[in-house]
Amino acid sequence: MNEDAFEVPERNEYRYLVQEEEEDEVQYVRRHYVSPFLVLSRRCIFFITCGVLALIALAGYLAYVAQTPPPGFVEVFVDCGWLRGRWESGAYSFKGIPYAIPPVGQHRWQPPVDLRDAGECWHSVYDATRFRSICAQVQPLGKDGRVLGQEDCLHLSVWTPSLQPAEPLPVMVWIHGGYLHMLSGQEKGYSPTEELASQAQTVFVSLNYRLNAFGFMALEILREGSPTNTSGNYGFMDQIQVLKWIQRNIHVFGGDPGKVTLFGQSSGGTSVWTLMMSPLAKGLFHRAIDMSGSYVYNASLESAERANLVFLRKTGCKDAACLRKLNIEQILQAIPWDEYPSWAGSGMMDIPVKEHFCGPVAVVDGHVLSAPPFDTWEKHGFYNDVPFIVGTTEQESDYSPPLQNISTWTWGDYQWFVTEKLRPFGDVVLSQALRLYNSTAPCPTNDRCPEWLYTTLVSDMRVGCPNNDLARRAAEALKSPVYRYVVAYTPSRAVNSSSLFPYPSRFSVHVLDSLAFFRGFEEALGAPSKEDRAFQEVLTTYFIHFAKEGKMPVDWPEFPSYTAVLDQKLSVAQNLTAERCALWEQNGFYPYAWIN
Asked: Is residue 258 within a helix (H) or strand (E), and if so which, with residue range?
């Protein structure tokens, strides 16, 4: 084993005792007979001792060889035991590391329990060369989806270019999206890699956290026996548990525990700014990037518990003990996928139905969050004041548009759908929308332009404009710098990723920024073009700079004075989309923004 590859901990439990015999000879005498075999000279003892020690040394060497990792592998010591990882593509990887005991049985719907507190550390070398199970979920969302994963899923993974760098490396912690219902921290093209760690000279961490009903079910009967007297938000507690693990252990991987950046996309972005507002995450991270996260986050624990009674009725249970005996399929099928307010988020990619809202998954529980985030900022309550980036893409909703034939729409189809969907909100809203989003707008492609404009309208209303308001509120509350970006890049061909997209998007779609950062274009685009790679390099360069420095370079000024526009190169704009956003804000559309 290459001892230079990592720092070997002191093993104070081994002690050695040496006794010296002062007598020249040791004789065993019987009354009238002295056996020659029992009269041993010091010289004989010396040679016998040497022989025994040689055998012990040989046995120790053989044991060492048996435990020494083969070429291409490495072992490190964390606070729960030894890990065996792998070296490839210019970096070390350690995958599937448990950070809490399995949340099964009586631990279902409870805060995560540290392995050390439960006496569950491993005693041999833990094989961290492969991913473990993803968390229980259905894909696609809904009662008829395919059940994947297990409850025993609380694992994290680490990628690092060096175990002993000259200076500790910045750490970036990835929180995956999926509407708090699906996906994992190990999706190909949507999670860190050895190549990225090597190129960025940064330590990356990704994690699996409890999802859907297992991670976010709020019910009054689940408060019984809860150490926090709350329910829900268990997935956020898992994320906080990982941040604590990082503070204790990331130095072993060459990372700087004082330079931790949280970044997440979609519900991962929602998670990021949840942790910014949580007193439980105080001091556990130092920068934050919210990519296309939710704007609506104000559901109280009591209202969520009432709304979730439909889940309880569908299970047939009347107490927590019964719920904890249900299997994975029974729980997932009982989620209110179709009942109002639905957990499936149906209609979120379209112009909303008036007075129709999606059900909250994340809630203000009084434990992870003491108050709604905006109230906390406005009333100067507790929050983690760290440098903050808020990002969105121009056509967020194009990954799952309302109709599969939208790519064949004519401009007549576009006007008919906008009119039908917006008429319930009044003629003024409709006429202004048709004026601001009209067919004379410069389309970035030669085809599918009605689709481009329709998904731009929906994305402004549901995501982009509300996130402008989120960034504005953050800039008013935080002493740290706040930055805003919008991805305007149109990829060279339709984005098609079977694990992430139900529809081949042609435009600047939801997830495009994270795909670029994680080198996911190879899978999603086939053969990325020179322009695709230029956009990828722009986004990656600025993100890594932010992680290292805690601020952007001078060509990316702070919000709200400027918004960065990310394309094949960076540009900045003042009052970007201001008139369009005023339409949606002034006419009360922000409550229809993405949730969860």
From this structure: strand 255-265
